[in-house]
Amino acid sequence: MNEEYRLNLYPFILRKITAFTEGFIDELDNDASFMYDEYPDKEYTLLMMDKLHKLLDTVFYPEDDELYSLMCSIADATFVNQIYLKRAQKD
């Protein structure tokens, strides 16, 4: 199964959050990026997740705190997964 097909199986909002998070990761991707450190710094990773949360808030305008929390959790999981995938592709 290819990546595009897999993403199309996701619910609409999950596809949007995933695409948004992948774009955010792509902007951070360079040879000196923290994500390629042997052990990426946890504090910096959390700082980047917080930045991602603020960007999500400006794009999706969640009115419900529970929805916002869920969106951030999905973005965080996608963020960590994308770092793992980028690292695996680089090796």
Describe this structure in words.
The structure is a single chain. Helices cover 75% and strands 0% of the residues. By secondary structure, the protein is an all-alpha fold. The chain has one domain. The protein is globular and about 40 Å long. The model has no long low-confidence stretch (mean pLDDT 89).
Question: What keyword list fits this structure?
Answer:
91 residues, mainly alpha
What is the strand and helix layout of this fold?
Elements: H1 3-8, H2 12-28, H3 42-60, H4 65-90
Helix pairs in contact: 2-4, 3-4
- The percent range for strand residues is under 5%
Rounded Rg: 14 Å
Structural class: mainly alpha
Tell me the distance between the termini: 22 Å
| Arithmetic mean of pLDDT | 89
Write the H/E string, N to C. Answer: HHHH
Q: Characterize the biggest β-sheet.
A: none
Q: What count of domains describes the coordinates?
A: 1
Number of strands: 0
What is the helix fraction of residues, given as a range? over 70%
Low-confidence stretches: none
Q: State the shape.
A: globular
Number of helices: 4
